TrEMBL record:
It comes from Deinococcus cellulosilyticus (strain DSM 18568 / NBRC 106333 / KACC 11606 / 5516J-15). This is Sugar ABC transporter substrate-binding protein. It comes from the Bacteria. Coiled coil: none annotated. GO terms for cellular component: outer membrane-bounded periplasmic space. GO terms for molecular function: carbohydrate binding. The lineage of its organism: Bacteria, Thermotogati, Deinococcota, Deinococci, Deinococcales. Residues 27-268 form the Periplasmic binding protein domain.
Length: 308
């Protein structure tokens, strides 16, 4: 009986030790897991955690709130994880919190936004796309379609990455681009876009910076029966965006493969934790790529699986 109890105790001890040694990473982003874009990021992180047998905790403020996000990063640092994954939409607001993690000896990988600042903050690797370059490619594409008067629809005013997209869009288009800031509420955004189009009849191209702006844009254009007058594009994918592309209700979407933005940083931190290895190129580009009416169906199949 005593041997049996000893065996059980020993087994429990080994199990507890194994659990205690499981690497734990905290992912803090500016996007809620319920958002169609960020849900795919989280799915990528969750799959990587499963594949690599590590633990990943996803945290985000309820709205685009840099104060709250900074607090979440600080809390993550205080919990002493094996690594932190973070988006950097506003380096001025989040820089101190990220630097605290680095000074505490916690390896940090950035994703999505922050390609222009991550090195200054001591971040090991950035996983994402170069936002300015992606915006410029969108501008060049619209210019080739004959667009002369473009509008950039920004659903997160103050997000540095989105502002870079608009700047790139303007430079690629080769003419001044107006910025239309909208709320994340669908109805408010749709009404704002409708009102803008009614006041500005010369607009012939609109670029949304994500599905949160693209989906109300599509409805505003449909209600105003303006599709034939406008070239439409967006950053990032959602089922609604892909459906619009398939029906030729939109001209293109820029895909940054956000599943990889969830998966790859977990791989990077896991290998760094286990072996101390890092990729030679400290920027892992996941985009930009273009989805158009011609290839939308193929991407839709992957979207249904939660990968695109």
């Amino acid at each position: 009986m005593k041997k049996s109890l000893a065996f059980v105790a020993l087994t429990f001890a080994f199990a507890s030790l194994a659990h205690a040694q499981t690497p734990r990473f905290v992912m803090v982003t500016h996007g809620q897991a319920s958002d169609p874009f960020w849900s795919v990021v989280k799915r990528g992180a969750d799959q990587a955690a499963k594949d690599l047998k590590v633990k990943v905790e996803y945290r985000a403020p309820e709205t685009f709130d840099m104060v709250k996000m900074g607090q979440l990063i600080d809390a993550a640092v205080a919990s002493k994880p094996d690594g932190i994954i973070v988006s950097i939409p506003d380096a001025d607001a989040l820089g101190n919190s990220i630097e605290k993690a680095v000074k505490a000896g916690i390896p940090v990988v950035s994703i999505n936004s922050g390609a222009d600042v991550y090195q200054k903050l001591g971040v090991l690797v950035h996983v994402g796309q170069e936002e300015y370059l992606a915006g410029k490619k969108a501008g060049e594409r619209m210019k080739s379609m004959g667009v002369k008067n473009g509008v950039c629809i920004n659903h997160e005013a103050g997000n540095g990455g989105l502002e870079q997209r608009c700047k790139g869009f303007q430079d690629g288009l080769g003419s001044k681009v107006s910025i239309l800031n909208v709320k994340t509420d669908f109805t408010e955004a749709r009404n704002a876009i409708s009102n803008y189009l009614q006041r500005n009849k010369n607009v012939d191209g609109m670029l949304a910076l994500g599905p949160v702006g693209a989906e109300p844009m599509l409805q505003a254009v449909e209600q105003g029966k303006l599709r034939n007058q406008l070239k439409l594009g967006t950053f990032d994918l959602s089922p609604t965006v892909l459906g619009a592309l398939d029906k030729n209700q939109m001209d293109f979407a820029i895909d940054q493969q956000q599943y990889l933005q969830g998966y790859l940083p977990v791989v990077t931190l896991s290998l760094f934790k286990k072996y101390g290895t890092l990729v030679a190129n400290d920027t892992l580009l996941t985009g930009p790529g273009f989805v158009t009416p011609k290839n939308a169906k193929q991407v839709m199949d992957l979207s249904k699986k939660g990968i695109r």
